[in-house]
Structures are given as structure tokens and as C-alpha cells.
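Dear support,

Our group has been running a series of protein-ligand predictions, and this particular one with iron/sulfur cluster is the one our PI (initials K.S.) wants archived with full inputs and outputs. We had some confusion internally about which version of the output was final, so please treat the block below as the authoritative record. The input we submitted was:
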Amino acid sequence: MISRKQFIDSLDKKIPNFRINQINDLLFDKTKDSFEQASNLPKDLVQGLNENCGFYSIKNVKIFKSKLDGTFKGLFKDLEGNLFESVLMENSKGNFSICVSSQIGCAMGCTFCATGTMGFIRNLLAEEIVDQYRFWNRFIFENNLEDKRISNVVFMGMGEPLANYANVKECINTWLKYTDLGPTKITVSTVGIIPNLKRLLKDDSWPECKIAISLHSYDPVKRKEIVPTSSPNFHQDIIDWSFAYKDKFPSKSHYITFEYTLIDGINDSKQNAKFLAEFVLKTAFSKINVIPLNEVSGKSFQKVKKNNLQTFKEEVLKRGVDITQRKTRGDDINAACGQLVVNETL
Ligand code: SF4
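Confirmed final output from the archive:
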């Protein structure tokens, strides 16, 4: 099997845009599951698509369901046969969020994260990311879960999305064209690859989605221990970048979120909270989202203690910085933040 894009590019005659739209309308129709159900495509095109590409570029291998909160985790095969994961979970608005992967494995090697232990294997193609939405949308339809819809997408699965810039951009623009997702319902969560953060500021086709930066520490030395790719100038670069970002996206819905994984005894003290708030106050229009560490087997890091979590949030709040807390979901099936890793072999 080859990708749909490869197949379309291989045709002698260029397919007109209206046909591409018809193909995508079919692909995004959750009630359809084969090219043969197209009522408006020429027979030879349907035959070519059928013979060369799957209706989905990714293949679901297994579904896990959390007994704690009903979160679903899917194990998938990409076009090259590598395994990766993607998650469907209920969100605070009573709808579904999906957490998508942009790469197989990840080169960033964040020390608390299970995905980082896999190393980098490959970038997913735009359609392999697009199809994670399509798969879950069909899954909701097939399993009669339609009292809820996919209202949000977060790039917090496997991989660093800004290290797969072109495919992530193409994927988001496809969702914006063919689904009811608005740009601010899609969040690209990044460790903060500075050249690509700067690149998106100058890129007219970069979608108006939201950006979340995984900070984890206000201190450059401590941050590098947690995010090994961090540079000594990272914090100043982010302050400068945040103002340029605000110039490009001045709307209030484009605040920057700093993700902060709280790890027991590492970055969860009162002093850490004070310095974090002071750092965030130097940036343009930003909020903090704390994530109590989801423990990963084989790693010594432990979850922040309840009391310390509360004190941390209070210390930040009293300095006038907005702080929210990510609800842990799918902990029992290793679907929570930082827990995605492929251990299975087929
Ligand atoms: S936290 Fe994200 S960027 Fe860091 S290693 Fe894990 S997947 Fe990669």
C-alpha cells in the first residue's frame, strides 16, 4: 500500500481540485468506509485508489479502554508497519478530545517521558496524522458514542510536532477545511524548537491554532536536565518570541500555554512556583497548565504530592498568573501524558 498522496502524484493526468475535494469529502464522511461508496468519483479513479491505498493510511491493531474514566487508547500501524498510539478521551466540556501522534518515537528524549525512550523512528505523513482524527470520528459513530463529538485535538501524543513541521501544518489545514474544528480547538504542544517557532511567525499558511510550550522549569540548567535539547538562552528566546507571536495573533484566544510537569522533589517547591510565575509575567499573555507527573515504569521520577501541588498552584496564583491543572486520563492503560510508548511486537 502507498499513501493517497503518492498515488495521486503518480497519475499521468493531474487530478483537478474539485476531485480532490470530492475524495476528501468521502474520507471525512464518518458513515462511509470504502472508496466504492463514492457516488461522484470516476470508476477508474475509485479502482486505482482501491488497488493502491487503504481507505485509512493507518491500520488499527488494538483498542484499550480505561476502567477508570472510559478513555480509549488505539495502537496503530503506520504505512511502513511501525506501531504508534493515539488517544480518545472525554474533555471538561463533555465532548471528546483526541491526542494525536506526529512522529514514531521522538528524538527529544525528555527524561520523564516514555516515548523518549524509543528514540526517533520516522515522521508521520500528513495523512497518517489526519487519519487519526478520521479513525476516532468513525469509532465514535460505530460505537454509538455520538452524544459527544471531537471538539478538540492536541498534539501531545508521540513525537515533537514542530520537528515534523510541514506534515503537521498540512494536516491541521486539512482538518480545518474538512471538519468542524476551529483553529483554536487544535493545540500544538512543543518543547519549543526556536527556529521553527520563528518560522511559523513568518509562514502565512501556518494555521491559527494554539501553541503550548513544555517548560517544566524556569531555570536553564534544571530545564536541560528534564528536556535535554534545551539551550542556555531558551527562556530569553521564548520571552522575545512570545511578543512576536502576540503581534501575529493578537486575539485573546491565542494566549500561550506553558506546560509544566510537576515532579516530586525536582521542580515542585514553593521557590520553583515563585520563579516560574516571575518568568511567565515577563512573557506576553501566557498561562500555566500543570500536569502532575504520570509515572512511567523503569523511571525513578515520582508524582508530585497532593499538598505540594496545592501549594504550588497557590504560589503561582497569588502572583497574578493564571494556572490550570490537566486532569489525568487513562492512567490505567498508560494513555496519560508522557506514558505513550510501544512495547508490543506483532
Ligand atoms: S515529552 Fe514530547 S517531546 Fe519530550 S520526549 Fe516525550 S514525546 Fe518527545
